[in-house]
Amino acid sequence: MLTVLALPLALLAMQQGIADRLAGRVSPDIAALVGELGTAAAARGLPIDPLIQKAIEGSAKGIPFERVATAVRLVAMQLDTAAGALRNGGLAADTAAIAAGAFAITAGLSGRDIAQLARSGAQVPEVTVGLRVAGTLVALGVPPSETVALVTATLQSGRPAGELLALPGLVQAQMAKGVRPAQAAAGLARAAAAQGRRGPPPARPQPPPHPEPPPRP
Amino acid sequence: MSERDFHPLVKQLLDGDITIADLPAELRAEGEEALRLLAAVDRSSVELPAVPERVMRTLVRAPKHSRPWLLAPALAAAAALVIWLGRPEPVATPAAAIVTVRFVLTAPDAHDVTVAGTFNQWDSHATPLVRIGANGLWTATITLPAGQHQYAFVVDGARWVPDPAAPAVDDGFGRRNSVLTL
After folding, report:
1. Between chains, do A43 and B85 touch, taking CB under 8 Å as contact?
2. Radius of gyration of chain A (CA)
3. What integer best gives the mean pLDDT of chain A?
């Protein structure tokens, strides 16, 4: 009984939260649509921020209602696809990982690619960074297969997630020398795989701790 | 960078509207020179020390709630469900860094350039770029949370231009958004 009473309240609160974020930024029609899609998405465990952002973006760019509505619905579908792919990959993903997966789909990766990245064995935060980097690499022109190979090899090499973030810059540096994006990614993937076979690099020696100050007399 | 103005087609190249392959042969050298000059600008990100992060955490710390034990059980159950459904999305991990990023655009004919994106709610007035010198170079330096951001430059309040030096994705409206992954 309590749940029956609480559910409409929760849905109302969710819609109100979305309406507050969209107030003054989008038309009432768009706000209503995002409220409806966002509430349903949240109930499925999906993030709502990408829906809100796409609606605000469309309005800021002066896009007509129908096209904004289509784009927001497409984002909702991409979030569903990403969540399903991460589940198929055996990952209990949070909303940040799902949003990263949806971005990777926007960039050109498929649900199968995302599931493959989820199976890398890395933890959710690392996979989240990996998905963002993978989307960025595809946006640079690296084909999906080479992208997945490179990000998977880097995730499995045991190196810190921060090194993932360096990959787009490394590929761009190679591209500036005339190397094709696919070749650049393949070379980096081979290096990461070799690193993985050797194991993670040794930790840097820590500086000695500061000596305790002498006790005051 | 020289003081001379670039050919209008080269300016379109710098704006990301066309590629170097779209330029006529006689303009390719000029286009390549313009791209070299643009690439020479230092746009490397800088990680700030931990102090600003601590400040940010303090700023975003959740406010204290009133006494929930005074609420009736039904309202408590409703509140629990509201909190579950309306929980904030983790935009970044707790240990996420704050990163300072410099945006650069060459737009010699522009009177006004801003950058709008997911980090400022796509507000085309929120983050203006400053013109540097007479070469049409515009820059802005802002601090962003680690994560993935999409953005575009807005030239003269009307023209949405992707960053020619950054990767870009389809924005769903027939244009391109630049991508920044920090």
Report:
1. yes
2. 22
3. 89
Compare all CA atoms of chain A with the CA of B35 and give the residue at the minimum distance: A176
Q: What pLDDT digit, counting tens, does each position of B68-102 carry?
A: 444 455 555 544 444 444 333 333 444 458 999 99
Mark yes or no for CB contact A165/B175 under 8 Å: no
DSSP state of B118: G
Q: Which residue of B has its CA nearest to A72?
A: B172
Q: What's the Cα-to-Cα distance from B181 to each of A78, A93, A182, B130, B149, rounded to whole Å?
A: 19, 20, 20, 23, 6
Enumerate the domain spans of chain B: 8-47+95-181
The minimal CB distance from B74 to the residues A2, A14, A74 is found for: A2
Is B89 close to A99, i.e. CB distance below 8 A?
A: yes
For domain B8-47+95-181, the question of CATH label 3.40.50.740 is answered with: no
pLDDT band at A200 (very low <50, low <70, confident <90, very high): low
Which residue is closest to B32 within chain A, CA to CA?
Answer: A176
* Distance of alpha carbon A52 from alpha carbon A26, whole angstroms: 10
Is the confidence at residue A107, as pLDDT, over 60? yes
CA dihedral sign of residues B95, B96, B98, B99: positive
Where residue B49 falls among pLDDT bands split at 50, 70, 90?
A: very low
The answer, for A13 touching chain B at a CB cutoff of 8 Å, is yes
Q: Which residue has the higher pLDDT, B2 or B6?
A: B6
pTM above threshold 0.80: no
* Residues of A whose CB is below 8 A from B81: 3, 6-7, 9-10
Determine the average pLDDT of the residues in A153-175: 90
Which residues 188-207 of chain A have a CB within 8 Å of chain B? none
Q: Which residue has the tokens 């027939």?
A: B174
Pairwise CA distance, residues B90 & A93, whole Å: 12
A132: closest CA of chain B, how far (Å): 6
Please state the rounded mean pLDDT for residues A3-15.
Answer: 71
Nearest to A56 among B90, B121, B177 (CB): B121
